[in-house]
């Protein structure tokens, strides 16, 4: 797997923007309606390799490393992920886009839509997080050991423990994927210890979901954790017209574990949206 490359497209534009005292790295390529890809926690924009290759021939694709991830530095001033994304879209001259977010990226996509809905044409949320969601006792207990390493400043040990988490077990059992998932997480190990001056959306998204009025496609892996299914149920019950698709044999990182199925769902959604 050529994990380090993002676009085959020779017209790729790479750059940085400055916001909240940080330098945010982005890449964009292709022409047409904008698709903005938001990566999962612990990873970076490279997780979208397959989707970018597939869609950049027909759309303008944009991806970036969220604060403190990949090539983006950590903000030194209070920030929200929604504000960071808005700054990037304004920099690129994008007035409206479809947002595709996985896990953390799904949480950011929802927050952005609640703050700047006029800039969102549609949402594709894969195994999404949700601001204000109270994780189950079982889930919380599963990550306590990770946080115990992080509190000691041991980013490597925290990352190794995270790679054993149920979120990542299906991907880590995939022989063609596990080394790449492991490497990206190790590249972003600093996330566990650096701390970010993030300001959460207030009131949190979980209390405002009925405000979301754009077409929404939810994707979840069959093997994902119960809490993610609970979040998907909340979204389905609150966002009018939302659709949910379960991808068999996939865990939390659906877009990487089952890229062909994921791309087909995206393709069908975009055909109806645009």
Quick structural overview:
With 274 residues, this protein is α/β, with parallel strands linked by helices.
Descriptive overview:
The chain has one domain (13-133, 196-273): Rossmann fold, CATH 3.40.50.1820. The two termini are 32 Å apart. Helix content is 38%, strand content 18%. It is an alpha/beta fold. An eight-stranded mixed sheet has the order 1-2-4-3-5-6-7-8, sandwiched between helices.
List the helices and strands and how they pair.
Blueprint lengths: L12 E7 L2 E8 L4 E5 L10 H7 L4 E5 L16 H12 L4 E6 L1 H12 L4 E7 L10 H15 L3 H8 L6 H4 L5 H10 L3 H4 L21 E6 L4 H13 L4 E5 L6 H4 L1 H15 L1
Parallel strand pairs: 3-4, 3-5, 5-6, 6-7, 7-8
Antiparallel strand pairs: 1-2, 2-4
Number of domains in the coordinates?
A: 1
Assembly type of the chains comes to single chain
Helix and strand composition category: alpha/beta
Please count the helical segments. Answer: 11
Mean pLDDT: 94
- The tally of strands reads 8
CATH architectural grouping: 3-Layer(aba) Sandwich
Ends distance: 32 Å
| Text of the CATH class | Alpha Beta
Task: Characterize the overall form.
Answer: globular
Radius of gyration over all CA atoms, rounded? 17 Å
Helical residues, percent: 25-40%
Query: So, the CATH homologous superfamily?
Result: Alpha/Beta hydrolase fold, catalytic domain
Query: CATH topology, anyone?
Result: Rossmann fold
Order of helices and strands: EEEHEHEHEHHHHHEHEHH
Strand content: 15-25%
């Amino acid at each position: 797997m050529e994990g380090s490359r993002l676009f085959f497209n020779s017209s790729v534009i790479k750059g940085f923007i400055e916001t909240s005292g940080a330098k945010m790295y982005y890449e964009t390529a292709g022409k047409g309606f904008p698709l903005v890809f938001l990566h999962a926690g612990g990873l970076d924009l490279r997780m979208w390799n397959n989707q970018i290759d597939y869609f950049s021939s027909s759309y303008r694709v944009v991806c970036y490393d969220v604060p403190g991830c990949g090539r983006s530095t950590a903000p030194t001033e209070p920030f929200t992920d929604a504000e960071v994304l808005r700054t990037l879209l304004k920099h690129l001259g994008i007035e409206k886009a479809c947002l595709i977010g996985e896990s953390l990226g799904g949480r950011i996509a929802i927050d952005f839509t609640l703050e700047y809905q006029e800039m969102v044409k549609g949402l594709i949320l894969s195994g999404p997080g949700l601001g204000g969601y109270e994780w189950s006792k079982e889930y919380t207990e599963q990550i306590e050991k990770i946080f115990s390493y992080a509190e000691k400043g041991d980013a490597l040990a925290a990352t190794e423990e995270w790679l054993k988490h149920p979120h990542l077990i299906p991907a880590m059992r995939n022989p063609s994927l596990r080394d790449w998932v492991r490497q990206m997480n190790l590249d972003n190990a600093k996330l566990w210890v650096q701390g970010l001056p993030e300001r959460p959306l207030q009131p949190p998204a979980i209390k405002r979901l009925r405000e979301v009025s754009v077409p929404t496609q939810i994707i979840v892996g069959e093997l994902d954790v119960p809490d993610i299914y609970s979040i998907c149920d909340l979204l389905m019950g609150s966002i009018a017209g939302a659709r949910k698709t379960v991808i068999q044999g996939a865990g939390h990182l659906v877009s990487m574990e089952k890229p062909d199925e994921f791309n087909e769902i995206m393709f069908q959604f975009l055909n109806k949206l645009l």
